[in-house]
Amino acid sequence: MRIALAQPNYHVGNFKYNTALTLRAIQDAEKKGAELIVFPELSVCGYPPRDLLFSDVFIRECLRQVEKIAEACRGVAAIVGSPTFNPEQNGKSLRNTAFLLQNGRIQATYHKGLMPTYDVFNEYRYFEPADTFHTIPFKGRRIGLTVCEDIWNLQNQGMYSVNPPDELFRENPDLLINISASPFAWNHGPNRLRVLSENARLYKLPLFNVNLLGGQTDLIFEGGSAVFNPQGKMMDLFPSFEEALRVYDLDEVINGRGKEIPIVPENDGKCRLMMDALVMGVRDYFRKTGLKQVILGLSGGIDSAVSLVVAEKALGKENVWAVLLPGPHSSDHSVDDAVALAENLGVRYDIISINDTVSSLEKSLSPLFKGKEPGVAEENLQARARAVILMGLSNKFGHLLLNTSNKSEAAVGYGTLYGDMCGGLSPLGDVYKTDVYGMAKVINSQQEIIPENTISKPPSAELRPDQKDSDSLPEYDVLDDILCKFLEENMDAASIEESGHDSATVRKVLRLVTGSEHKRRQSPPVLRVTAKCLGAGREMPLEASYEAIINC
Amino acid sequence: MRIALAQPNYHVGNFKYNTALTLRAIQDAEKKGAELIVFPELSVCGYPPRDLLFSDVFIRECLRQVEKIAEACRGVAAIVGSPTFNPEQNGKSLRNTAFLLQNGRIQATYHKGLMPTYDVFNEYRYFEPADTFHTIPFKGRRIGLTVCEDIWNLQNQGMYSVNPPDELFRENPDLLINISASPFAWNHGPNRLRVLSENARLYKLPLFNVNLLGGQTDLIFEGGSAVFNPQGKMMDLFPSFEEALRVYDLDEVINGRGKEIPIVPENDGKCRLMMDALVMGVRDYFRKTGLKQVILGLSGGIDSAVSLVVAEKALGKENVWAVLLPGPHSSDHSVDDAVALAENLGVRYDIISINDTVSSLEKSLSPLFKGKEPGVAEENLQARARAVILMGLSNKFGHLLLNTSNKSEAAVGYGTLYGDMCGGLSPLGDVYKTDVYGMAKVINSQQEIIPENTISKPPSAELRPDQKDSDSLPEYDVLDDILCKFLEENMDAASIEESGHDSATVRKVLRLVTGSEHKRRQSPPVLRVTAKCLGAGREMPLEASYEAIINC
Predict the structure, then answer these.
(1) Is A271 designated active site?
(2) Which end of chain A is more exposed for a tag (fewer CB within 10 A), N or C?
(3) Do A525 and B524 touch (CB under 8 A)?
(4) Residue A543 falls inside a structural domain
(5) Are residues B109 and B161 in the same domain?
(6) Quick check: is B144 in a domain?
(7) B298 lies in a domain?
(8) In terms of C-beta density within 10 A (0-12 exposed, 13-18 middle, 19 or more buried), how is residue B539 classed?
(9) Same domain, A242 and A282
(10) How far is the C-alpha of A390 from the C-alpha of B365, rounded, in Å?
(11) What average pLDDT does the segment A422-447 reach?
(12) B248 and B328 in one domain?
């Protein structure tokens, strides 16, 4: 039996587009002699549809598309995913369903059993979990079909009290198929592949996984679908960040002594992987919202430099507009560095001084500011003057403003709300400052694109004379290690201290993080590339007291 | 047996403060001869703690406080709520627990069985639902203790497959106690009380409910704890929006032929109720974040006028600062109306023209804007110049900027991002324009506080000559009815049309709503006062296609 796997880049709610992609893949698979083609979780509507699921019109449209796709399944059968109405009186009104479409009609259904409801997942908000599980007969074989999370409760060690593959195994399946929508984080891929491998090995069955591809608001899905033999060896791995369709012979996979593909992260692949993910994330956000062009403020610093390169790779140099906005404390080299980068990339740039606007603002405020020392308020005026000018250009010409903040500064609230925190999308908001440097290294690996001076000079917001980030913050390697331990590894203050950090520094950083939740609440969507993003997947109260967790 | 109910205003994570409130109430109850005092859901840490629950330090601190409160329970016993660790290997790592504290120690525990995970609730993110339920013996009686949602699966008609009160009823309880944290919406109170009454009536048992009090970021909890006799008659109802403690004789409630309190919403109480809720919401946000003073832009229009009155009632006139920011298209009467209101309230006001700043911005942009017709970009410059000045004052003097947008304009994206959409908190963001007028009527019911002209003139953003809201939008009574049906009643476009609206208008409004999700993503927290807020409880994808639900 020949099985095709397809990872198209779907668009949530765009039924015409999604179904066209699916039908094209079905045709392609048929041409290639496949008897079955498998698509990812909720393929019909795209993932995650979020509260669109509460619209009955939306669900009915999904079901109409399933019927339409079924009609095209004459020569080849297909497994697609769609939300369905739950006919039971009790429970949530929907199910997360996989359909086997065959001979022009719906042949069988499987309902997802485990509803991930943690981090970025919120599936129990919508879906009733199934409590019975059956294999699906197909051409003399029994398919053990599951949806994403269903295979993650390995050996019942997880956060659920049922284990769908165990239930399916009682019916002696011949192969396992898992359709998934597992969001990208730079270090998540190997976990995902190991869980797949472990399932194949445990049940001694071949396993085919199709994982979703594409950027969807703040979540990035890398694709990277994979095939495992009954010993748990990975026999094939799809590319990440691109559409693909491949066909396999089931018996070859079962008996396959082909070359095993090792499950290891590239040794130095972190920043390159983040780069690729962010480029797809930016490209898809623009494409799916119908936008083409981007504008950003280019300061001569490292964050806006790397943001500009990401934007250029995602959208093409003709669609990128860099604006230099020198102010009273900008250094000459900043303007030079910014110009050099824009010219290296061949993108349009303009220079608009903020000095007059800042002076007008200061003059307007002077009767009320009289007798007060200049401070953060005056610094923020500069950042906000820049934002107003950038948004003016955005509104006039229809370019989306790209935010250029990094995760380290966002985490400690080192940014101006309605100033440099503006923008429609934040590509670096989940990238620590030290990794922004890593990305710059990747960018410059062939030739110097980002000027060396941008990389080597000490980071500064340039909002007052001789300002340096390190005046207010620990050095970035220390800060980033503390942040990663607190945010991603969920370590408490005492444990972070024990790991080798100064107690006062740890408390200071945690107080900055917990004290700036209100700023991040108004941040643009952040493209998620780590295990814990300061956006999707993190829900903190704004008016809580955090003292107990800081002073532990 | 004498039972006390207490609804203190807790502060999430502020253990010292919360435990002091609890201990004081225990003392008070003891003095009043109570044998048992009941506190609301998760009383020990406050509700909702959200992702603070993922901190083990936080949970351990909760448990330490439970022990501390237990030590004080010598004369009187107490029921308190706290998260606890789930000792089972499978399932979520926490439970949502109610404790009976008696004789200086933990006497019994009950774990919540139904985890609301919809709208503003996200409890399955954290808590494993209990699957066994037992009554708790106390002084010769059996208590059927439940936590909030547990009693909402009435007669198994709801979204769960278990019904905890049915399970408890098998053990013949003598009374029912429900501890809850049910968030306010102007029309939710009667639902809540009817469900409580129905449970009492169904099991023929007296029922005591303690509901949480206080504002917590965007959610408002009204209190309104209540007592029902075995016929389901409401025998007492706590005040809304204030702390209280009352003591009841159980036998009197069981036999009670006291005066029944009817469960009916006040006929014309909607806007007064919203007003009271918003005043508590604003007051608590400031108090719990440690802030005292507020600043807002006063335009002479109805939204900022009502916002100012809410702020003044919440924080006192000495803590409120109104700033008038006339621009090139502001009318004289706007300034006059704003001044009159500020003087009526006795709050500080200042007048700062934005004309110079707008001119500077226009001059800076003119080389790039050359040859383009003036439009939305120029209008937004004015709104953003105001925001930068207000934020400058906020940063300099430490006043929190209050957002003054209403729900109608927020819903259709009729507002400037980083302009009038700025602010740390949005008191009117869940109040339709027509209800803002209703609130103005309530405010002026004794004497004219808001100038009549502010109420009677046609709404305008005053960003271009002779601009009126009705140039771009349907009249507000039409708009608000469509919005309410779409957002709160979850009606589809075809049904809204059938209810008596013009088809083109319905589609236009729905397209404006779905096309402005990206703006609202960056809004300040909105105090929730309706069944569906444009903030907490609504999760829409930004880059989805919404055509299918608009064109149905």
Answers:
(1) no
(2) N
(3) no
(4) no
(5) yes
(6) yes
(7) yes
(8) middle
(9) no
(10) 10
(11) 98
(12) no
Q: Pick the catalytic residue: B35, B62, B73, B112?
A: B112
From the list B54, B215, B357, the residue facing A364 with the nearest CB is B357
| Residue A417 pLDDT > 80 | yes
In the predicted model, is pLDDT for residue A376 greater than 90? Answer: yes
- Yes or no, beta carbons of B422 and A424 under 8 Å apart: no
> Contacts of residue A322 in chain B, CB cutoff 8 Å?
none
Domain boundary among A419, A453, A468: A468
Contact criterion met (CB below 8 Å) for B331 and B301: no
Quote the CA–CA distance of B254 and B229 in Å, as a whole number.
6
In a domain, B261, yes or no: no
Check if the beta carbon of residue B213 is closer than 8 Å to that of residue B222: yes
Contacting residues of B for A375, CB less than 8 Å apart: 396
A243 shares its domain with A350: no
Token look-up 């103005």 returns B440
Residue A432: give its domain's CATH number: 3.40.50.620
pLDDT digits (tens, 9 = 90+) for A67-80: 999 999 999 999 99
- DSSP 8-class letter at A151: G
Residue-level pLDDT at B267: 57
**B41 among known catalytic residues:** yes
Q: Does A422 participate in catalysis according to the annotation? A: no
Look at residues B232, B197, B237, B246 and name the one whose alpha carbon lies nearest to residue B37.
Answer: B246
For chain B positions 431-490, those within 8 Å of chain A (CB to CB) are: 490
Considering the candidates A148, A271, A422, A533, report the single residue annotated as catalytic.
A148
The one-letter code for the residue type at A216 is: Q
Give how far A258 is from chain B: nearest CA, Å. 38
* Domain interval for residue A75: 2-257
- Are A396 and A425 found together in one domain? yes
Give the CATH number for residue A134: 3.60.110.10
Q: Per-10-residue mean pLDDT for chain B, 552 residues long?
A: 98 98 98 98 98 98 98 97 95 97 98 97 97 97 98 86 95 98 95 96 98 97 97 96 97 88 77 97 98 97 98 98 95 93 98 97 97 95 98 98 98 98 98 98 97 94 88 95 97 97 98 97 98 95 94 86
Number of domains in chain B: 2
Determine how many CB atoms are found less than 10 A away from the CB of residue B196.
27
Domain boundary among B256, B285, B320: B256
Dihedral of alpha carbons A343, A345, A346, A349, sign: negative
Residue with tokens 């002077």: A366
Residues 6+ apart with CB under 8 A from A96: A41, A42, A81, A83, A111, A112, A115, A123, A126, A127, A147
Whether A253 and A276 map to the same domain: the answer is: no
- Please tell me whether residues A89 and A173 are part of one structural domain: yes
Q: Full-prediction pTM beyond 0.90?
A: yes
Residue B180 and residue B130 in one domain: yes
